[in-house]
Design a protein that fits this description.
By secondary structure, the chain is mainly alpha-helical. Helices cover 71% and strands 5% of the residues. It is built from twelve helices and two strands, in the order αααααααααααββα. It has helices at residues 11-26, 34-49, 54-78, 82-96, 99-114, 118-125, 138-185, 192-195, 197-221, 229-238, 248-259, 288-319; strands spanning 263-269, 272-279. The protein has a two-stranded antiparallel sheet. Helix 9 packs parallel to helix 11. The radius of gyration is 19 Å and the shape is globular. The protein starts with 10 loop residues before the first helix and ends with a helix.
Length: 320
């Protein structure tokens, strides 16, 4: 993926900043979201291309991610003037981000659990993750939500901003498309054990940097949440390797240490039990931690934005 060179060194960081502001002001549209439209098209292409083998999955990912990414890069090169470049970056960044919606989910879940509406909370959990919530008690619902909000802060905020800083519009599009395909087809179900392999591996590769940036920022920000940098770092070092995901593990572990809670354990996905190990050595999660993890997500978003703006500015100045 080539580094994006815009007409002015500030066009790219300005676009990232404006896209972030748009997400904070208007969040995700309730209908016709471009990511949902991409998901619809990706599902149609999957039905046409599916075969139970990895090579077909690789070809599928090359089309589903490659075509939108090349289109974004081509459009970026054809635009004239810094305002046009900034507008393109802002639009794609707004589409890719989900920080405000993520924090809204944390607040909605907190209200449901405080009202002891377990059936509503179980249904609401589906907005955050694919975990089977059928018989989950309140504390397990809270744990699942805290884990998902921590992980999705990397996926829905830090990832798009970082890849936008590194590769411009094409980076934003490639990251969001790959992340969406992983959510749709990357799970180890019988149908996608082979076909979904490429989707999962591409998402893993693109999340190596965002996940570790998120984890590093979480360690740094731990005192702002009443936590300990030492505990957050220890959870990253000692507990993250037990998590089956090389990226979600570092994000969830550092969040557990920063919040002073215990995450991880056995989760059920599509009838299969997955042991994610124990993350952190604190107390069990309670409802109040939903608002604390929302605050962590907000702090991470702001810190990540500042870092990515600085990175984008430096890269654009260097390549001119």
């Amino acid at each position: 993926m080539r580094v994006s060179r815009t007409a002015h060194p500030l066009a790219l960081p300005a676009g990232l900043l404006l896209g972030y502001a748009l997400d904070e002001i208007i969040a995700d549209p309730r209908r016709g979201h471009p990511v949902a439209l991409f998901g619809w098209a990706a599902a149609a292409l999957e039905r046409a291309m599916w075969r139970d083998d990895r090579s077909r999955g690789v070809a599928y990912v090359a089309l589903a991610v490659g075509v939108p990414t090349l289109a974004a890069g081509r459009l970026d090169r054809r635009l004239n003037g810094p305002l046009a470049h900034a507008a393109l970056v802002a639009t794609l960044t707004w589409v890719a981000l989900g920080g405000r919606s993520l924090r809204a989910e944390a607040e909605a879940m907190a209200k449901l659990l405080q009202a002891e509406d377990l059936s509503g909370a179980r249904r609401r959990l589906g907005h955050l993750c694919s975990r089977d919530a059928t018989n989950l008690p309140a504390d397990e619902i809270a744990r699942a939500a805290v884990e998902s909000i921590a992980e999705n802060t990397a996926d829905a905020v830090i990832g798009p901003l970082l890849w936008g800083a590194l590769a411009g519009p094409a980076g934003v599009v490639a990251y969001r498309c790959a992340n969406t395909l992983d959510a749709m087809f990357g799970y180890r179900s019988a149908r996608y054990e082979r076909f979904g392999w490429a989707s999962a591996r591409l998402d893993d590769a693109l999340n190596v940097l965002p996940a570790r940036l998120t984890a590093a920022l979480t360690v740094a920000l731990a005192p702002a949440l009443g936590g300990s940098r030492a505990e957050a770092w220890a959870a990253w070092r000692d507990d993250a390797p037990a998590h089956p995901s090389p990226n979600a593990g570092v994000v969830e572990a550092t969040a557990a240490g920063a919040l002073g809670v215990r995450l991880g354990g056995a989760n059920t996905y599509q009838g299969q039990i997955q042991d994610r190990g124990v993350l952190g050595c604190g107390r069990a999660v309670d409802v109040a931690d939903l608002r604390r993890v929302a605050r962590l997500a907000n702090l991470l978003s702001l810190a990540g934005l500042a870092g990515c703006l600085a990175l984008a500015t430096a890269i654009q100045r260097c390549i001119r």
